Amino acid sequence: MATVRFDVLSPHLLAALYARIVWRELGVFVPPSAREMDVYFGSTSGFPVSLFARSVAVAMGRAFARGESVRGEFAGALRQRLERYDPKVELLGAVRSGEIFGHARILAGIVETAEAPVGQEVSIMLHEVADAAAADLHRLREMGEDRVDCSPGGPLGPIWRKEPPVWWPRLPEGPDRWVTPMTRLCEPLWSAQQMAGEDLSYLVDFGLDGIESRPGIIERWTSTAGELVATASKRRTSIKKLVECCRVDP
Questions:
Q1: In this structure, how many other beta carbons lie within 10 angstroms of the beta carbon of residue 46?
Q2: Cα diameter, the chain
Q3: What is the SS3 assignment for 39?
Q4: Beta partners for 3?
Q5: Helix/strand/coil for 82
Q6: pTM of the model
Q7: Is residue 243 exposed (0-12), middle (13-18) or buried (19+ Cβ within 10 Å)?
Q8: Torsions phi, psi of 5, nearest 5?
Q9: pLDDT tens by residue, the chain, 250 residues
Q10: What is the residue-wise DSSP string for 145-194?
Q11: Rg of the chain over CA atoms, in angstroms?
């Protein structure tokens, strides 16, 4: 267990720190609860629990850290979504999924309130993630800026500066492959100014429900996200009309 303290960070820099922590933890396989095991392994998705919700958290945190407009209602809806996942599953022998989900929830909470906890610290059981977060924190303090691009091509450098740890799958497309498509899909929602908060929350939950069961709908939904936001921003628009803007089946 390692502890990283961040008492001097602004909300935007703290979001950058947590976004990169959650980004790295996308490589940790989070299995479903025993109750859902048969359904999970009988499905065609084959994705770890909450992968898409945590990818959204990374994308949203990165946008907020850069100083872009992110609706607090969007972050709040995502935080509530992340609270549903089972925190009792053991990972890698010692790490529990509660920690993985917890970091994503804290990130969403920072964006939701646009406030940084004072005198706080983050505990990380995976030493590779803890070491990388400590290096990020050192760099953030050196920069002396209030906004930062925390993506791999930004001033903080790659997510893994050295060889990725053994638990990060070595595939042609890494565990974080969904961060970019989820950015394209959700950015019109979290930056929308006219959409009612309750509609925004509904769409976050509705979208993640569908994506977790059928990841193939992401690309089609991305192509209709702008239309959905435009429709949702009109007065007296019904939830049914909002959903009809999405091509639910790929």
A1: 8
A2: 53
A3: helix
A4: 123
A5: helix
A6: 0.88
A7: middle
A8: -100, 140
A9: 577 776 668 899 999 999 999 999 998 877 655 444 433 333 334 567 788 999 999 999 999 999 999 999 999 999 999 988 766 666 655 567 788 889 999 999 999 999 887 767 888 888 899 999 999 999 998 888 889 999 999 999 999 988 889 888 876 778 899 999 999 999 999 999 888 888 888 889 888 988 888 888 888 888 888 888 888 787 777 766 666 655 555 4
A10: -S----STTSTT--S-SSSPPTTS---SS-TTTTHHHHHHHHHHHHT-SS
A11: 18
CA–CA dist 33, 81 (Å, integer): 16
Give SS3 for 237: coil
DSSP assignment of 185-222 equals HHHHHHT-SSS-HHHHHHHHHHHHHHHHH-TTHHHHHH
Residues 6 or more apart in contact with residue 216 via CB below 8 angstroms: 250
Look up residue 128 and give its two tokens. 């590779």
Enumerate residues 6+ apart whose C-beta is below 8 A from 138.
Answer: none
